[in-house]
Amino acid sequence: MAATTVEVELAKGGMSLTETARPEWVQNLWSPAGTSAWQTRPGFGQEEQLDTTLLSYTDSSDFLYQEHLGSSAISTEFGHEQVVSVFLNRASTASSQDLFPSNVVYPAGKPARFGNYYSVRIYDVATNKSWEEILHRHTSENDPVALKMDEWYGCYESNETQDRQSYVAATSEPFFFEFFNGVLYFGNERSGLLSYHPVDLRNIRSKQIPALDRHQWVKGYSESSLIHPVVPVDGVFDTAFNYLNQTTFPRPRVAAQMMGHFVVADERTVYFSDAGKPNQFSAPNFIEIPSEDLITALAPINDNLLIFTSSETFLYQPNRGGNIVSGGRLSPVSKAIGCMSGSSVSAEGDIVYWVDSNGVYSTSNGLQVSSISLPIDDLFGGQITSPVSSYFQENGTTTIANEQPRTSYGITGNETISIGYDKITDSLLFSVDELNCVWYFRVGEWALWPTESIVSTVGGVSKVGVTRNITNPFVVIGSESIFLVSGLESQSVTDAVSATSIVNSSYQLLRLGKGGGLDRSIKDEDNRVFADDNVIVSSNSGQADSRFYFRKAEVLANGDWRVPVEMVTQPANPKPTHFDLVIAFNSTLWRPVVIGATATIDLEFPPERSLSSDGYSLGAPIAGTSEAQVWDSTVPAPSATGDQIRIRWDAASSALTELNLTPQYNNTLFYIRFTPLVPASSALGFGFTSTGLVADYDVGATLNIQVDVVAHRTLRTADRHKDDDVAQPVDWAYKSVQVGIDEQRQVRSRGIYARLLSHGRATTPITANWLWGLYNVVMGSDWKDWSTQVLDQENGDITYQASKSTLRTRARDATAVLRDRTFNNDLKYGSYLVDDEELDIISTSLSVKGKFLSHMAFGFVMNRAEKLLIDSMRAAMKTAGGRRRTGR
Predict the structure, then answer these.
(1) What is the dihedral of CA 773, 779, 784, 787, to 10 degrees?
(2) What CA–CA distance (Å, rounded) separates 97 from 162?
(3) Is it the case that residue 100 has pLDDT exceeding 70?
(4) Average pLDDT, stretch 77-94?
(5) Residue 335: is it exposed, middle or buried by C-beta count within 10 angstroms (0-12/13-18/19+)?
(6) Closest listed residue to residue 366, CA positions, set 402, 328, 394, 406
(7) Separation CA 275–CA 579 (nearest Å)
(8) How many CB atoms lie within 10 A of CB 677?
(9) Which of 666, 722, 785, 346 is nearest to 521 (CA)?
């Protein structure tokens, strides 16, 4: 009598390494609210990639953005979602490395400073606009008694001849964030308590000090009020209580809110503000925490306050009799459970979730603590091993050329953890930066979301490796989206003009579901600056009070670069009757826009200079010459490959007797447009030089004044990411426990019947020639599923089926051939007008024999449109006789 086939359900529940009835591994799958089946998670698509506006002047990666110190998402009162991030930034604050011409005498205090600074990046999701703020001391922090107000100077009143810089020196201590009454409060012990009142951002402004503009004409500003320190003041109860002031107010480590009171804490003291007044703290409104450890986090719960150290948890139940809430009850909740940091706790509704070095916990009343991480308990203080990467390790070879995938995961307590709860999907997520992963939890079920991929090819052949385009993930939960802050990414670009390397450090803001199924999918969401500075083109005049400026170019819709040219004149000689300007440029990369039969340089004039336009004599690009400071000698003929622009203004040719310029002021004269000749090259500026050439102006018949020339440089590069050049697959897997049939000694599995919903496998994957597809199955027997590598097995107790189709042919095309029911698949006209996605039963025919059997379905989402939902996965098994007499 033939053995009866038994079907065993494999797709039941979430990941568990301790409960034998649950699967052992669930990777890059989720089941958001409203669904009941596991499905491949959407990819984290790139929302934006940003760098700093400061400079490094070195090709070392030890400069610019160095560490991510924390992020928070807020919903503004005007309906925008914004993400605020803080970075440790090692950079120079000056706008130029040319400090300064050796023949010009400048004050000893030059405005170039290298240091560690706090860089705050604000990104508006609704408008795709961003802002950078370098934290500095504000004039509001000055003592009006010790320093008169007419002696107050803002940080950005620094320039070539004055140094008023007052930046906050940065450390790597993380930042805390708390959104309270429409304002984001954040900081750490070094920065103090700061506030950001949300604004609708327009255009970003460089945070460099204008090092090549003197204070007489600099178009600067004093300081920014976008982010400013919270200054404690007396409250409405000042007749009854003393209030904390700037001297007595603490440097907070963490912040929260409770019953309308803003709450901050330093090492072991918790301070409560007046209700609704985050900058008013009465002196008696505080409590002390009886702990040897420092406070690490605060969280509100049911009008009470949870207070955490690294190893303990306390519940504070405040006094509800008035504005002073410090007369309440402090109760120890746990002497063994604490919280790792302020970013490791999430308060949502009536439940608080947090991560300790021992596990993940929750409470709904503050007194009873539940561990929700028991299924993955070995992650904390131990290691859990991935069957996916174990299966794909390159083993049995003498030399392993490729970096191998991560095989295990473990938390030691030193990692940066960020946790958040998303109400829309009813999902709890926490990220572990050093492991490059996010853990997903919902209705008691866990799944691991690695942000690395093992997909790799060498010479067009599948070769296991590591694709790591999302690093150090930090999960941030917004009101409408789930974000990851990723990075830092370092990239080197070679400047075609100077042949030097420019190192860029940037971070990426990623959003779950943007761009479909791929991780870090991107169209053109890369707005890095790379480099943005000024150089002294000509410094042989010795005149520091008169200059020509070639300012920052505007990129026009047609691809041309439009450069404003300004002039500063001396106070004693403000109005030129004549000037000559000769400038050399890199003619292999740029070509000035010309007009007319003689190919004259096309100048554009602002309205206030239109009357002076008749006084200009212009040439076409002229080939280089050895003439020195002489305009009127024999001028070479215009050249199609010329590398000089020659511009003269003469009152003798104009209706004006002189140029009406304001002395010691940036007077815009005209605009020059350039067309890039090699769009794919990286060029820092136009290669402007004028050594040995003319830059001067005349006043009257005899007075000739030599003029310095300063040029702005902006990097034009094709090295910005686009068109999915940094996209990577999402590697998913669902592995069952070892299963058998009751007391049978030996069983045989004949394959898997899976009920799947799929969009099919794309014909254009981001990685070509990868052996494995969207849906693959592997089976093994007798506990070898965690130790067996694919290269070890040619046959025997582990079998697999690669790149199994996830669709059934359901419709005929015009030639009566059965095809998948997908878009653009040549279906017969009229076959389907409106249709729903359907569940297909996909069978795999494999054979493995043993006492216990393990099944793993896995795959790789390698196209934006790919997706897979697993409604059921059943193994077909039957009795196969007794145990073997040899072997295991």
Answers:
(1) 0
(2) 17
(3) no
(4) 96
(5) exposed
(6) 328
(7) 66
(8) 13
(9) 722
What is d(CA 620, CA 601) in angstroms, rounded to the nearest whole number?
5
- Convert the pLDDT of each residue in 470-512 to its tens digit: 999 999 999 999 999 998 999 999 988 888 888 999 999 999 9
Amino acid at 196: Y
DSSP H/E element including 770: none
Q: Average pLDDT, stretch 186-215?
A: 94
Identity at 587, one-letter amino acid code: S
Distances (CA, A) of 52 to 81, 129, 494, 498: 22, 14, 18, 22
User: Contact 691/586 with Cβ under 8 angstroms?
Assistant: no
Out of 2.60.40.1970, 1.10.1200.10, 1.10.730.10, 2.60.40.680, select the CATH number for domain 532-716: 2.60.40.680
Gap between the Cα atoms of 548 and 571, Å rounded: 15
Which tokens in the block code for residue 583?
A: 């400038």
Which residue's structure tokens are 């925008």? Answer: 80
Cross-strand partners of 298: 307
160 neighbors 171 (Cβ within 8 angstroms): no
Residue 145 corresponds to which amino acid?
Answer: V
Using CA atoms, how far residue 597 sits from 511, 587, 634, 638, 676, in Å, is 54, 20, 21, 12, 22
Rg (CA), the chain: 34
Give the Cβ contact number of residue 643 at 10 Å: 18
The type of residue at 294 is L
Question: Which contiguous run of DSSP H or E holds residue 875?
Answer: strand 868-879
Q: For residue 347, what are its two tokens?
A: 């308060």
Same fold, 231-373 and 532-716: no
Nearest-CA neighbor of 724 among 519, 501, 428?
519
Measured between its terminal Cα atoms, the distance across the chain in Å is 28
55: which DSSP letter?
B
Q: Which of 218, 233, 877, 780 is nearest to 549 (CA)?
A: 218
Token reading at 782: 């007798």
Burial string for 760-789 (b: 16+ CB within 10 Å, else e) reads: bbbeebbbeebebbbbbbbbbbbebbeebe
Residue 769 has pLDDT above 70, yes or no: yes
User: If we measure between CA atoms, which residue out of 286, 331, 325 comes closest to residue 313?
Assistant: 331
For the record, the structure tokens of 249 come out as 């107010």
Count CB atoms within 10 A of the CB of residue 350. 10
Tokens of 629: 């400071």
Q: What percent of the chain has pLDDT over 90?
A: 57
CATH architecture of 231-373: 7 Propeller (2.130)
Q: 3-state DSSP call for residue 282? A: strand
Domain segments of the chain as ranges: 6-24+736-879, 44-100+108-176+198-227+416-447+466-526, 231-373, 532-716
Please state, rounded to an integer, the average pLDDT across all residues of the chain: 87
CA–CA gap between residue 323 and residue 281 (Å, rounded): 10
Confidence (pTM): 0.92
Region of residue 336 (phi > 0: left; psi between -120 and 50: alpha; otherwise: beta): alpha
